[in-house]
Amino acid sequence: MSKATLQRRPLVKELLKGADDNLLVIAGLGSSNWDITNAGDRPLNMPLWGAMGAPVGMGLGLAMAQPSKRVLVITGDGDMLMSMGSLATVATQQPDNLAIVVLDNEKFGETGNQATHTSPRNNGPTDSGAGTDLSLVAKGCGIADSTIVREAGDVAQFVKDVRTKKGPIFRLVKVMVEKLEFVMPPQDGAHLKDRFRAALLGKA
Amino acid sequence: MNADAMTIDWREQIFDVLQDHEVRQVYHVPDAGHSRLIEACQTSNSIRTVPLTTEEEGVALAAGAWLGGQRSVLLIQSSGVGNTINLMGLTKTLRFPFLTLITMRGDYGEFNSWQFPMGQGTPKVLEAMGVLLYSVDKASEVKATVDAAARAAFNGGQAVAVLLRQKLIGIKDFGKKKA
């Protein structure tokens, strides 16, 4: 497989362009959090600073509670590997308003770019994974609309699908390994939760 | 099983309490002790019932439901409490109401030695994560206990676990003898 060419920051910026009150976003800890914040911090973003493995479950609970809103979960391959079972749980409910985007750089970025299981096998003694294909995992779990995005030419359709296509949809995006500036949202979880609920429900 | 357990349908009463507190999402793993409650939720028009692959998913789902303005309950066994501990931290960092009803194993009259470590550890690990514990071993006290726990959670904003003790549920005997 050729090396990834997509850059996560411009991709996420494009994905969240023109986000209005109908778009509820949950981002996994680390890079995905900084990515959505780089696109513009907003009350209807719920960027996690911890709780690895939680984003998909949170997205499902939120999607069921707010069926008329679009719910978007953005996270990384490391986070998704930790909670693969939650994809099967999503599939039991088939929420038509939920989109899951996994930005797969095949690395545990926050701890020094160690290979995740999505890295190729036989990639040297310190950098080998299992070649795990999370889009196939999602499909196998029962999320039928699951594809991989690799090329710049596919981004426009990807954005359209994630923002509007009938869910649940799963998109695995192969992205480059990059060293990027930390763009941090507020850290206090209770504050993030309260501002989200105030914006969505009119009460914290 | 004690005498009032034979006459009081405490599982039905739990369902009524969940309805009273406007619980809209119920998460569960398969469980003999909770099975009738789970079935009542599955056939309810007002509750969305979600089977989990592992208990900690329920904590994440509960956080998401609360973000979206809905109350939820997680139904599990003590055997899986350890799985929830890491994500249980979310109840502290986000400060959201959380209620779980836990059927106990490795408790009163347990026959399976493999159930004891997590059963006996359950109150300690939940306490370590700052979860309030309510314990009930009499059928006549289930309704009031679950109601009090739901108030502490949904009105008081706390993370609360109700331990449904093995004395209440009955001792699992693999069908050798009716409990």
Structure report:
The complex is a heterodimer of chains A (204) and B (179). The mean pLDDT of chain A is 97. In chain A, helix 5 (85-93) crosses helix 6. Chain A has a single domain, classed as Thiamin diphosphate (ThDP)-binding fold, Pyr/PP domains (Rossmann fold, 3-Layer(aba) Sandwich), CATH 3.40.50. Helix content of chain A is 36%, strand content 18%. Chain A is built from 8 helices and 8 strands. Chain B is of the alpha/beta class and 179 residues long. Chain B has helices spanning 3-7, 10-20, 35-42, 56-67, 81-95, 116-128, 139-155, 166-169, and strands spanning 23-28, 48-51, 71-77, 98-103, 132-136, 159-164. Chain B has a 6-stranded parallel β-sheet with strand order 2-1-3-4-6-5, with helices on both faces. In chain B, helix 3 links the parallel strand 1 (23-28) and strand 2. In chain B, helix 2 (10-20) crosses helix 3, helix 2 (10-20) runs parallel beside helix 7 and helix 4 (56-67) runs parallel beside helix 5. The N and C termini of chain B lie close together (6 Å). The mean pLDDT of chain B is 93. At the A-B interface, helix 3, helix 5 and helix 8 of A face strand 2, helix 4 and helix 5 of B.
- As for the number of domains of chain A, it is 1
Highest CATH level, the class of chain B? Alpha Beta
Using the coordinates shown, work out and report the CATH topology of chain A. Rossmann fold
Stated plainly, the CATH topology of chain B is called: Rossmann fold
Give a short synopsis of this structure.
The complex is a heterodimer of chains A (204) and B (179). Chain A has 204 residues and is of the alpha/beta class. Chain A contains 8 helices and 8 strands.
